[in-house]
């Protein structure tokens, strides 16, 4: 069973975080949510999420994918956290997937993980002049090698389904997607 880490930072975009966590778990992916600080994390619109653990407890573990939800100031907290930065660099170097949506691709860009890659982001979250080696495009989801980026809350479901397909295959994605549109 694939393992995915979703770090949770104060001020994250709850729609993105919950959609990613929910759809991956529906697809039988082991998702570990880890708070940067206290396990109760207040999202950008006041929703309180309770993380499975704190980041220190899992920071040295290997995952198949690390996924950063966006939102502000959550994405800035992720970008500035030295544990998250080291984790992203280590997973990228090991050939594992790194993924970020909305404003969170900034954390990938600031580490050079978007250099020579196509990526998307929430409009205004990244300035092309600041990251001239990245090809920033206006698309809902971009997969370039082992780096996946998504535009924002409105594309969270597409983003999560793409992640699921990468981890579990197209048949699993189709089953989860069908389950979302059919009456229970």
TrEMBL record:
CDD domains: GATase1_DJ-1 (cd03135). It comes from the Bacteria. GO terms for cellular component: cytoplasm. Residues 3-165 form the DJ-1/PfpI domain. InterPro entries: Class_I_gatase-like, DJ-1, DJ-1/PfpI, Prot/Nucl_acid_deglycase. The keyword Protein biosynthesis does not apply. Pfam families: DJ-1_PfpI (PF01965). The keyword Lyase does not apply. Keywords: Repeat. This is 4-methyl-5(B-hydroxyethyl)-thiazole monophosphate biosynthesis protein. It comes from Marichromatium purpuratum 984. The lineage of its organism: Bacteria, Pseudomonadati, Pseudomonadota, Gammaproteobacteria, Chromatiales.
């Amino acid at each position: 069973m694939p393992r995915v880490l979703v770090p949770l930072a104060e001020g994250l975009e709850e729609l993105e975080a919950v959609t990613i966590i929910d759809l991956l778990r529906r697809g039988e992916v082991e998702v570990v949510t880890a708070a940067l600080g206290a396990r109760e994390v207040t999202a950008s619109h006041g929703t309180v999420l309770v993380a499975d653990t704190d980041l220190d407890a899992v920071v040295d573990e290997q995952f198949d994918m690390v996924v950063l939800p966006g939102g502000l100031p959550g994405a800035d907290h992720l970008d500035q956290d030295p544990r998250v930065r080291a984790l992203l660099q280590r997973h990228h170097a090991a050939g594992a997937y790194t993924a970020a949506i909305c404003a969170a691709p900034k954390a990938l860009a600031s580490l050079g993980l978007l250099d020579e890659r196509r990526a998307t982001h929430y409009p205004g979250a990244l300035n092309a002049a600041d990251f001239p080696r990245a090809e920033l495009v206006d698309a809902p989801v971009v997969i370039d090698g082992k780096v996946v980026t998504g535009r924002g809350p409105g594309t969270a479901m597409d983003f999560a389904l793409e992640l699921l397909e990468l981890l579990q295959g197209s048949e699993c994605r189709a089953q989860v997607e069908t389950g979302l549109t059919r009456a229970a």
